[in-house]
Amino acid sequence: MAKIFVEAYGCSASFSDSEMISGLIANGGHTLVDSSDQSDLNVIVTCSVKDATANKMIYRIKSLKEKPLVVAGCLPKAEKSTVEKFTENASMLGPNSLGKTLQVIDSTLKGTRQIALEDSDVSKVGLPKVRLNPAVGIIEIASGCMSECTFCQTKLAKGDLQSYRIGDIVRQVETEIKDGCKEVWLTSTDNGCYGFDIGTDLPTLVNTVSEIPDDFRIRVGMMNPMYMVRIKDKLIDSFDNDKVYKFLHVPVQSGSNKVLNDMKRGHTAETFRDVVTKVRERFPQFTISTDIIVGFPSETKEDFEKTVSLLKKTKPDIVNLSRYSARPGTEAAEWEQIDVSEVKRRSKIIFDLTNQISNDSNKKWIGWKGKVLFNENTDEGIKGRNFAYKSIFVDQDVEIGQIHKVEIVKATNHSLIGRIAC
Q1: Domain holding 112: CATH number?
Q2: Whole-number CA gyration radius for the chain
Q3: Looking at the domain assignment, is residue 127 inside a domain?
Q4: What is the pTM of this model?
Q5: I need a labelling partner for 204 at 20 to 30 A (CA). Which of 7, 157, 379, 395 fits?
Q6: Do 166 and 294 fall into the same domain?
């Protein structure tokens, strides 16, 4: 039996994969350790969504390859040759190949490299796991997606949509709660199209999970605007439950319909604006998160100004900003690219604008009092979330998983500072 170190990068689905890989390893009789210094074998669960991320993965692969190594996640599936360029001996495990985890681990420990990148028929719901956070249960409700975005490698890595059945997901949520989780994340590549392949949809899932008779919170994960037209009204209704965080992550990517068409996003800027308007009409205190890509190859200065205008009109609370980077195997990687200096200029404009929007949004919470679920220890103190999934820090003696009444006393661009209220 070996000592194995597992580390993960990327989205919540990637971290969920790492929890299941760790669970399978522990169930297989091996020992999980906290650092590569202690290990006999290393496992890295990778992300390949951006150039900067892929470069970090390569750096970590080079750092970990002195010992037997398994490279798992999106990078080996989307860019097998890149992994092999930097480590010829590492085994590989695809994001939909978790059923072969122990087989790959045992083979690698014996000195035989194994490549397991083919999708298996093993559902990710119900697999054993070792949680990264004892208060949070990350549950993958589907794998893959229905989109064909010209900039994204996710389809190359995870393939077509494969939704997991509601009954199986509910049982997994019940297990997470029984094990002490106070918060569950419903996550996938694109929650918006959940269930379309099996005759159901996301609102039905959220309503069913909400009916579980326990005290816990539900965070609904990222969904592309493309499919929200089909479920928007039902979805908003499903958020009218105290268990569901008033939070949506809807990546618009651009305010220009021409650019969105070139990206093959399948939605318009108006689709996003309509969702934001309707949600805030129903729930005035609701956190909207979105993603913006600047410097997409076909983005003109006029297109960029439309993105600026959309952000000023919709004022999303959180904006995940990315400079476009050409990813191998994607359609847009073959197009003529925009000058780097111009991309940096546009990025700085969006960065400054969104910081101001976030700051203005957060200041409105000063003086608010209410319940906060504390779910994470950080260098800044213990962090919790209120009903709108706002990050709230307190510098007081609070334990993970506890709920306290908090008063907000200060706001920053990215968080709220509070104190325990009597």
Answers
A1: 3.40.50.12160
A2: 22
A3: no
A4: 0.90
A5: 157
A6: yes
